[in-house]
Design a protein that fits this description.
Structural class: alpha/beta
Number of helices: 11
Order of helices and strands: EHEEHHEHEHEEHEEEEEHEEEHEEEHHH
Largest sheet: 8 strands, mixed
Mean pLDDT: 97
Strand content: 15-25%
Radius of gyration: 21 Å
Bound molecules: flavin-adenine dinucleotide
CATH class of the domain at 7-80 and 196-264 and 360-425: Alpha Beta
Oligomer: single chain
Low-confidence stretches: none
CATH topology of the domain at 7-80 and 196-264 and 360-425: FAD/NAD(P)-binding domain
Number of strands: 18
Helix content: 25-40%
Shape: globular
CATH architecture of the domain at 7-80 and 196-264 and 360-425: 3-Layer(bba) Sandwich
Length: about 450
């Protein structure tokens, strides 16, 4: 597997102190050690692969689901648990220019539908995953961003058909949003969840429906021949009619070769405090259970978990090594203390990081792997893949079955993203971008 970060990023080190791992037992699926035959083989057992496997087995297909580590090892088992709108970074103007207004609206409908899909899964599978928050709240880190919220209201109405609610600076503490913020806006779509509880329930259901699930089975090659695909791991093979690549930020440059340079893995890091007392919560003025983020380009995302621990996340970091992790660790604490000064001294008990994924087109891709008939891929949710990854998996299930998707499948998601320049050194493109974002966030 040719991957573009240091081996540290793909090891267990970054998740040794992941809070979610305390709530769900680590899965222990066997290695693939034989020759297996099925209709569809899926590489990568995160939200994308799991959702595809769940929907395909529900429709009667035989499926093998393989992960290089164990299911949920990737971003799926270690994210912030924001089940929300998003999935791309492209602005409305950009989408209108490239695809037209109708396709932009279809894409926005897909974002909303993705959240609905997760709610539906919660209902169908009776998932209990510590759900909280009514929609998602954006908090202005500068007065001008609070003003800009007003201009966004018509755009939100047009895109999502809902009325966002504005919060004046003076109301924030009363609403439980005490921190260094200048105003807020709540979009009433989305909720918070425990990602490992959600993913593990879908995993169990998929297993019950008959999927063959293999852990510690990195797929090393995928060969297309007359009878379909042959995938090899170190000790076994899978033959299948169709294949889905669901490896997102953990993808390799050569699996399939078409993917090389079309994805940009980027790091995101999270800290979780010890349980806060009621006095500490009111001292800071943060008592809300809303999932929230600030208006920085290099955004911070945060939420008070149901057990009164505070989760705080941040994007950024070019290198994945012990030293780089120490630097990120310092930076994330500093940022946390700046935004929530009353909690400066509160102990951080959990801390971890992982890889999300961008595309050059700033939109997710869900569709065929060109020139590899029968192969499909879904990736690049721009750090918002809890809902969009799940949705992508459901779409992939339809595509594999050659069914017309009954949910929005816009051109923005069907269009193959171009390659980033600089090949395997491309992450260095993020250096000037991060610097620009930090400058423009001032
Ligand atoms: C710290 C962090 C916080 C985030 N917070 C949020 C959030 O709050 N809300 C939100 O919506 N999104 C969030 N995201 C993004 C979200 O988690 C991802 O978009 C989503 O989990 C992607 O799911 P996936 O299944 O496509 O990929 P992943 O979950 O990354 O899974 C890919 C899997 O592929 C496997 N794999 C790779 N190569 C091979 C191979 N050759 N053979 C077999 N298996 C292989 C990997 O082991 C991995 O398990 C966050 C991401 C990070 C890193």
């Amino acid at each position: 597997m040719k991957r573009i970060y240091e081996p540290y990023a793909y090891s267990h080190h970054p998740i040794e102190r992941c809070f979610w791992r305390t709530s769900v037992e680590e899965p222990n699926f066997p290695r693939l050690e034989r020759d297996h035959r099925c209709d569809v083989v899926i590489i990568g057992a995160g939200f994308t692969g799991l959702s595809a496997a769940y929907h395909l087995t529900r429709d009667g297909y035989s499926v093998a689901l393989l992960d290089a580590q164990q299911p949920m090892f990737g971003a799926t088992g270690r994210n912030g648990g924001f089940c929300c709108l998003g999935g791309g970074k492209a602005s409305d103007n950009r989408l209108d220019r490239l695809f037209g207004k109708d396709e932009r609206l279809l894409y926005r409908a897909a974002e909303k539908e993705a959240v609905t899909l997760v709610s539906q899964l919660f209902h169908d599978l009776k998932i209990e995953a510590d759900v909280q928050s009514h929609g998602e709240t954006a908090l202005a880190h500068r007065p001008k961003d609070a003003k800009a919220f007003e201009d966004e209201l018509p755009r939100i109405k047009e895109n999502y058909g809902v009325d966002a609610i504005l919060h004046a600076k003076e109301e924030l503490v009363q609403l439980g949003f005490g921190g260094c913020f200048f105003g807020g806006m709540t979009i009433p779509i989305g909720f918070g969840l425990n990602p490992r509880k959600y993913a593990s329930t879908v995993l169990e259901a998929t297993k019950r429906q008959g999927a063959a699930i293999f852990g510690e089975s990195p797929v090393l090659s995928v060969v297309k021949n007359k009878s379909g695909f042959e995938l090899s791991t170190r000790q076994g093979t899978v033959r299948a009619d169709k294949v889905i690549f669901a490896t997102n930020g953990y993808s390799s440059e050569d699996l399939p070769r078409w993917l090389h340079s079309r994805f940009m893995p980027v790091q995101s890091s999270i800290i979780v405090t010890r349980q806060l007392t009621d006095e500490e919560l009111s001292a800071q003025g943060w008592t809300s259970d809303q999932i929230a983020y600030d208006t920085r380009d290099l955004l911070h995302y945060f939420r008070l978990l149901p057990n009164k621990r505070f989760l705080f996340g941040m994007r950024g970091g070019l290198f994945a090594t012990d030293e780089a992790q120490s630097a990120i660790s310092k930076e994330i604490r500093q940022n946390f203390s700046t935004l929530f000064p009353k909690w400066r001294e509160v102990e951080i008990e959990y801390e971890w990081s992982g890889l999300a994924c961008l595309s050059r087109s700033q939109t997710p891709y869900v569709g065929k792997v060109p020139e590899m008939e029968g192969a499909f891929a879904g990736f690049a949710y721009h750090g918002n893949g809890v809902a969009m990854g799940s949705y992508s998996g459901a779409l992939l299930s339809d595509l594999v079955q050659e069914k017309q998707p009954q949910t929005p499948y816009p051109a923005t998601m069907r269009t193959v993203p171009p390659r980033f320049p600089f090949g395997r050194y491309r992450r260095h493109l993020m250096r000037p971008l991060y610097a620009y974002m930090a400058w423009s966030d001032k």
